[in-house]
Every structure is written in structure tokens, then in C-alpha cells.
């Protein structure tokens, strides 16, 4: 039931967002709840293909309610004894699925925050003194999402971090991790794999090959709230460096300038405490009103100093309970089915007039395609045709939203004009919903 922002802000059909200051009746509160859902988007609907996270997993929904019932904070064992241990257990299981014998991690509010944690860890790995002294006086650090490592080195910079992607947001592409890892190892560079979207393929024997070599990474972001269907938010940052051993230990030649700076500037003995986890070493602030070292239990189970956050929501219970309920096999079945449904869409697109795939052989559950309505199909001037094509996806999307029948995302990419990106991650999607994508786009775009 789409309305424009100004309509919702002005109030609609008795639904007002205003806080009047007056206490409302219980009846009104219930009406507010109903209206909030009425004017929202039903992301659990099987024709919602708009986002990487979709669906409504009942087990994790129940877990979310229980989490709020407990209403606690992840920062200390003292107030979250079960949840902190549960996080430890789940993190260790995720590390083992990646292929690491050891490791640590945390759940944080989303993939981008976890990627930030990875950058902070990688910097701490090569230059632990930066935590205390800032970046001034150290060589210029550079991080990469593509090529040019050697060029930066020659320019006197210090490559310290490369991020590979397992399941890109738009195309769903997977980087070749072993090749990237080889370069990272050679130059002593931290390798992070952003598997926020693609990490779920590790649960599938059929599709795990897409992340071959992920165990070579230093850290991984993996979001169970995407392809694994756990309700938002549930995003993990994992590292195989359970114990802090700085880069000094393994790449002395390449990092000699940094080593020298660290040795000269080092006046903080704790940055070389090799029994400490890397997350704690780089993020701890030792707030003594929370993390007293003389508590009567094993304070290594307090998680608060592993993060820059302090307060941290309990996100692990949703995943833990869903995992208990479905088992590995349940997640595997779900991943395989979503990819199979996406392949079915690819086959339909290939044989339907007016549709064209952007990437002819999609690897994952992203299917990107253009729709050429009849009015532009036969245009001979390619420039005009592409100018018009660029407007098609936004126009059809607006009609999807006005009609409330289906939602699919669109975007341009590089030189490619606007195209649809269809995602299947919702267990409620069936073959007839995929058929509907084609017929509904044809209906909404017939002119
Ligand atoms: N963090 C990226 C999510 C984007 C998407 O759902 O399309």
C-alpha cells in the first residue's frame, strides 16, 4: 500500500506519525501496530525480490521476541551469560565451516560495520601503535578492492589490506580467492573476504566451490540475515587470528619500514601481548565500570572490549535457534532451492522475447536482466534505444510499487544502463512466483 513520504508524514486514513505527548488508549496502540504493518512493505511476501534479505523465518522471529524479552546487552558475561557463550559456540562453528581450526569473531550491526572491523584489525596487525599514536609518522597505508598492489608499493605506500568479494551485491559474482591470497601472502597483506551475501554457499555441498580457498582469508564477513534467512540483523565478523601475532612475525622484509617505526615508537607493552585476541587487542578501551578484572568469574568471556561499540544487541540467538531447528541440512536445502529457482528464471528469460540477461551465466541467486518493451524493441538507433532502455526499469519499478504486486530492484552498473536485479532468498518463493516476474513485467511495461 504505497504512499509518498509527504503523504505518510501528513497522516493518512487516520494514521499519524506524530508524538502528541498524550498517552494513547490501548485500542489506539493496537491500531497503530496494525497501520505500521499496513503501510510498510511485506518483505516476507514471495513476490518481494528487491533485497538480499527477505522472507520471514518463524524460528528466528520467535528468537527475536525472546531476545527482546531478555532485554540484555552482549558486552558482559555478567548480564548475558547464556548469550555470550552461545555467541562463542556459534562463532567457533562458523570458523570451522570456513575451514579454520581456530578463530574468533563477533556479531555486529551489518556487513559494512563488520568490514570496518576487518580494516581496523588489519591495520592493527601491521601497525599496532596506530591505536595509541594515530596515523601520523607512519608510512601511508593503502587498501585494495582490485589490482595495482605493486604500483602502490613502488610509490612508497604500504599495502596492508585486500578485500575479495564472495557474492557481489549486484551481479552475485565471486572473486577467485586462491589467486588473490597468493598475492597477499607474497606481500604480507591481510586478506578479508566479504562473504556477507555469498557466505551461505558454504552450507551447500553443491555450491561451496564458489568460495574455494576462503579458508586462506585472514577475516570473513558472513551475514546469516541474507541467504540463510535469519531475521535482521544477524551479521558476523570472523577471523582466524584468535591470538594476536602482528605482521612483524611473518613478513619482516616487506614491512621493514613499519617494523622499524613500531620498534622505535613502541612504548605500549600491551600491544605485543601475544595471548590476547586480535579483536580485543585493537578495540579494547578497558572501561573499568564494565570490565573489572577482579570479578569472581572468568572475565575472558566478557565480549565488550572486542568491539568499538560498548552496547551490543543480542543477534546470535536468532541464528542459534534457527540452526538448532533446521540443522545444516535445512540451510543447505534452502540455499540450493534459491539458486535453483534463480536458474529457472534464467531459463525463462532466455526464451522470452523482450528480456535479455546482463550476465549470461549467473553464478548465484542474483539474476540481472533488461526488459525491452515493444515500443523500443525494433529501434535501429542503438544510442536512442539505450537512452530509452535506461528509463524502463525505473518506470516499471514505480508501477510495481504503485500496484503493490511485486518488487524487484534495479540499478545501472558501469556502462550498462538501468537493469533489474532479481534476488531469490525467501523460502516462500515458488516456481509460479518466478513465472509471475515475467508476466507482471510484461503487463506493467506493455506500453
Ligand atoms: N548490504 C547490501 C544490501 C543491499 C541489498 O539488499 O541489495
TrEMBL record:
<dbReference type="GO" id="GO:0005737">
    <property type="term" value="C:cytoplasm"/>
</dbReference>
<comment type="similarity">
    <text>Belongs to the group II decarboxylase family.</text>
</comment>
<dbReference type="InterPro" id="IPR021115">
    <property type="entry name" value="Pyridoxal-P_BS"/>
</dbReference>
<dbReference type="GO" id="GO:0030170">
    <property type="term" value="F:pyridoxal phosphate binding"/>
</dbReference>
<feature type="modified residue" description="N6-(pyridoxal phosphate)lysine">
    <location>
        <position position="226"/>
    </location>
</feature>
<comment type="subunit">
    <text>Homodimer.</text>
</comment>
<keyword id="KW-0663">Pyridoxal phosphate</keyword>
<keyword id="KW-0210">Decarboxylase</keyword>
<dbReference type="GO" id="GO:0009449">
    <property type="term" value="P:gamma-aminobutyric acid biosynthetic process"/>
</dbReference>
<keyword id="KW-0456">Lyase</keyword>
<dbReference type="GO" id="GO:0004351">
    <property type="term" value="F:glutamate decarboxylase activity"/>
</dbReference>
<dbReference type="Pfam" id="PF00282">
    <property type="entry name" value="Pyridoxal_deC"/>
</dbReference>
<dbReference type="InterPro" id="IPR002129">
    <property type="entry name" value="PyrdxlP-dep_de-COase"/>
</dbReference>
<dbReference type="InterPro" id="IPR015424">
    <property type="entry name" value="PyrdxlP-dep_Trfase"/>
</dbReference>
<protein>
    <recommendedName>
        <fullName>Glutamate decarboxylase</fullName>
    </recommendedName>
</protein>
<dbReference type="InterPro" id="IPR015421">
    <property type="entry name" value="PyrdxlP-dep_Trfase_major"/>
</dbReference>
Amino acid at each position: 500500500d504505497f504512499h509518498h513520504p509527504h503523504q505518510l508524514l501528513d497522516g493518512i486514513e487516520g494514521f499519524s506519525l506524530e508524538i502528541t505527548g498524550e498517552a494513547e488508549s490501548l485500542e489506539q496502540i493496537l491500531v497503530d501496530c496494525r497501520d505500521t504493518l499496513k503501510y510498510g512493505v511485506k518483505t516476507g511476501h514471495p513476490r518481494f525480490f528487491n533485497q538480499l534479505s527477505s522472507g520471514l523465518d518463524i524460528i528466528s522471529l520467535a528468537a527475536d521476541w525472546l531476545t527482546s524479552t531478555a532485554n540484555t546487552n552482549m558486552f558482559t558475561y555478567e548480564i548475558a551469560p547464556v548469550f555470550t557463550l552461545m555467541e562463542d559456540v556459534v562463532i567457533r562453528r562458523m570458523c570451522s565451516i570456513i575451514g579454520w581450526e581456530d578463530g574468533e569473531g563477533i556479531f555486529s550491526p551489518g556487513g559494512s560495520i563488520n568490514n570496518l572491523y576487518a580494516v581496523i584489525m588489519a591495520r592493527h596487525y601491521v601497525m599496532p601503535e596506530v591505536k595509541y599514536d594515530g596515523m601520523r609518522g607512519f608510512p601511508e597505508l593503502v587498501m585494495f578492492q582490485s589490482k595495482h598492489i605493486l604500483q602502490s608499493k613502488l610509490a612508497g605506500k604500504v599495502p596492508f589490506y585486500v578485500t575479495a568479494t564472495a557474492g557481489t551485491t549486484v551481479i552475485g559474482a565471486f572473486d577467485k580467492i586462491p589467486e588473490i591470497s597468493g598475492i597477499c601472502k607474497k606481500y604480507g597483506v591481510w586478506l578479508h573476504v566479504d562473504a556477507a551475501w555469498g557466505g551461505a554457499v558454504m552450507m551447500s555441498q553443491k555450491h561451496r566451490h564458489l568460495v574455494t580457498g576462503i579458508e586462506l582469508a585472514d577475516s570473513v564477513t558472513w551475514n546469516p540475515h541474507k541467504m540463510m534467512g535469519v531475521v535482521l540483523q544477524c551479521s558476523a565478523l570472523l577471523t582466524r587470528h584468535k591470538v594476536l601475532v602482528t605482521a612483524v612475525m611473518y613478513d619482516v622484509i616487506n614491512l621493514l619500514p613499519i617494523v622499524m617505526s613500531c620498534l622505535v615508537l613502541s612504548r605500549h607493552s600491551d600491544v605485543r601481548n601475544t595471548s590476547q585476541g586480535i579483536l580485543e587487542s585493537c578495540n579494547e578501551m578497558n572501561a573499568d565500570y564494565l570490565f573489572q578484572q577482579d570479578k569472581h568469574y572468568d572475565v575472558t568471556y566478557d565480549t565488550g572490549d572486542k568491539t568499538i561499540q560498548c552496547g551490543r544487541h543480542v543477534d546470535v540467538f536468532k541464528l542459534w535457534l534457527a540452526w538448532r531447528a533446521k540443522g545444516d541440512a535445512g540451510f543447505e536445502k534452502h540455499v540450493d532451492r534459491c539458486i535453483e529457482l534463480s536458474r529457472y528464471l534464467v531459463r525463462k528469460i532466455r526464451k522470452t522475447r523482450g528480456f535479455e540477461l546482463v550476465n549470461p551465466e549467473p553464478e548465484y541467486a542474483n539474476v540481472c536482466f533488461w526488459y525491452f518493451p515493444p515500443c523500443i524493441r525494433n529501434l535501429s538507433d542503438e544510442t536512442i534505444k539505450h537512452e530509452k532502455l535506461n528509463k524502463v526499469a525505473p518506470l516499471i519499478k514505480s508501477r510495481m510499487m504503485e500496484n503493490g504486486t511485486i518488487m524487484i530492484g534495479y540499478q545501472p552498473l558501469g556502462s550498462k544502463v538501468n537493469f533489474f536485479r532479481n534476488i531469490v532468498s525467501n523460502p516462500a518463493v515458488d516456481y509460479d512466483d518466478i513465472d509471475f516476474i515475467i508476466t507482471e513485467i510484461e503487463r506493467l511495461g506493455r506500453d
